[in-house]
Write a structure and sequence with these properties.
Layout: E1 7-9, E2 16-17, E3 26-27, H1 30-37, E4 46-54, H2 55-70, H3 78-82, E5 86-95, H4 100-113, E6 121-125, H5 137-146, E7 152-155, H6 157-161, H7 163-177, E8 184-185, E9 194-202, H8 204-207, E10 216-224, E11 229-234, H9 244-263, E12 269-274, H10 280-294, E13 298-305, E14 326-331, E15 334-337, E16 356-362, H11 370-379, H12 396-408, H13 413-419, H14 422-428
Parallel strand pairs: 4-5, 4-6, 6-7, 9-12, 12-13
Antiparallel strand pairs: 1-14, 2-3, 2-8, 9-10, 10-11, 13-16, 14-15, 15-16
């Protein structure tokens, strides 16, 4: 059965800003913005990189970093041109085999022999393994290193098989995890001071313990009105799924207090992005805590779901896919938004796009309308600092929280507690270490 729904188009891709002090340093494309202007913040001069690799791949990994430093055809001028900084290889550790145990040993070696001031990033060559299994070199090395405040970037053989764009994406990841801010939105999002992206994950270690039952952890990523990632907030305790509201309540309280400290302002317009529909109890819990911390404020509750039965087709496109930036109304508070269809920013598509089902409500009337919400979500798909591609389906609020959820479902309870320890958390808080 076919239905014809009314809809709308977001006319323009948001421009991105590539200089904190020069408002003219704008471009809609990440590549050309970095190539012309460099990063938004230019306060990093040197990034110290430590390598973990097999003996057979060490030369390739070292050569890759030297290419990033000196430049190749796709990034002429290399890191000094694109990011106004230099790469410095400060050491390496060989893993004898590509087993989990050897990668754990290498990560523990870094933790025991180096301090955070000695290393900005650990670059780890790993075998390609599924991200759905916890006991892999990817998760074990990343979790162990993060538990002592070290950010890491993993590469596999596929990195070397597609170097053209791997160079730029890897350079962005290295710069970002070293504490840099590569780009933000040119214009502040209207009616917005603070955005919180919330997710939860299942704790495998608790689930598998005797009599423990399935437990969950809550996390949030916090952004300002230019879409700049500020910090992440996590809970050092688990909860039952039926008590999501307790986790949401605590996360929001902590996030607001930390935001106030960093920005030195009281956020009066707050958007909360959630992977599921907000329940009545959750909305009330958030409203109560924000009033306790801030007094009167405006809160938009935005549910973003991509696991739904809706499918839309556009007969004016060659493959029937909905163009990026188009959306249709389901009612006054719900839309279906396409973020990965045909676009002027890219010559390729990602097949039939999976649309985002966006549901919106607010604690006050006439705060936002659904069109403004669709534009906010759309703009936030341009802020994923893990890639230069414009074809990012999810807003960064959920993308980053999902990355944390996947990682923390695999790390041990002791490692997660160490990550949230104030001495370690202070280091990781300024870096999206989880992407």
């Amino acid at each position: 059965m076919s239905y014809f729904l009314s809809g709308k188009k977001i006319e323009n891709e948001p421009n991105l800003l590539f200089d904190k002090f020069d408002t003219s340093a704008v471009n809609p494309e990440v590549y050309w913005g970095l190539r012309r202007f460099g990063p938004y913040e230019k306060n990093i001069t040197t990034i110290k990189v430590f390598i973990i690799s097999t003996k057979t791949r060490l030369e390739n990994v070292t050569s890759l970093l030297k290419d990033l430093q000196g430049g190749v055809s796709i990034i002429p001028g290399g890191m000094p041109k694109f990011f106004h900084c230099n790469l410095d290889i400060v050491g390496h550790k060989i893993v004898n085999t590509m087993t989990v145990q050897d990668y754990e040993a290498a990560a523990n070696y870094v933790n025991s022999q180096y301090q955070n001031k000695d290393i900005d990033l650990v670059l780890v060559y790993i075998p390609k393994t599924s991200r759905y299994f916890a006991q892999t070199p990817y998760y074990r090395a990343k979790g162990i290193l993060a538990s002592r405040g070290f950010c890491s970037q993993m590469i596999t053989d596929s990195t070397f098989s597609n170097l053209k764009w791997a160079y730029l994406n890897l350079a962005i990841a290295i710069f970002t995890k070293a504490g840099g801010i590569p780009w933000v939105l040119e214009s502040a999002m209207p009616k917005t001071d603070m955005i919180i992206g919330i997710a939860v994950s299942e704790r495998l270690s608790i689930k598998e313990s005797k009599g423990g039952g399935t437990k969950f952890l809550g996390y949030a990523n916090i952004f300002d009105n230019n879409g700049r990632w500020m910090f992440f907030e996590g809970l050092d305790k688990s909860f039952e799924k039926c008590k999501n509201y307790e986790a949401v309540k605590e996360i929001v309280t902590n996030a607001i207090q930390k935001f106030k400290h960093e920005k030195n302002i009281d956020p009066k317009n707050i958007s909360i992005h959630y992977y599921k529909k907000f329940g009545r109890v959750e909305r009330k819990a958030v409203t109560d805590v924000t009033q306790n911390v801030l007094g009167d404020c405006n809160i938009s509750f935005i549910s973003i779901n991509d696991h739904h039965p809706f499918r839309l087709y556009d007969k004016t496109t060659s493959d029937g896919s909905f163009r990026r930036g188009y959306y249709v109304y389901l009612n006054r508070s719900q839309v279906l938004l396409s973020t990965t269809g045909e676009t002027s920013l890219a010559g390729r598509r990602m097949g039939t796009p999976r649309l985002l089902h966006i549901t919106f409500s607010s604690n006050v009337q006439d705060f936002f309308n659904i069109d403004e919400i669709a534009e906010q979500v759309f703009s936030l798909t341009r802020l994923d600092w893990a890639t230069a591609t414009p074809l990012v389906r999810e807003p960064v609020t959920l993308q980053f929280s999902r990355e944390i959820a996947e990682l923390t479902s695999a790390v041990t309870e002791q490692e997660w507690s160490s990550i949230l320890d104030p001495s370690i958390n202070t280091i990781l808080n300024s870096r999206p270490w989880f992407i």
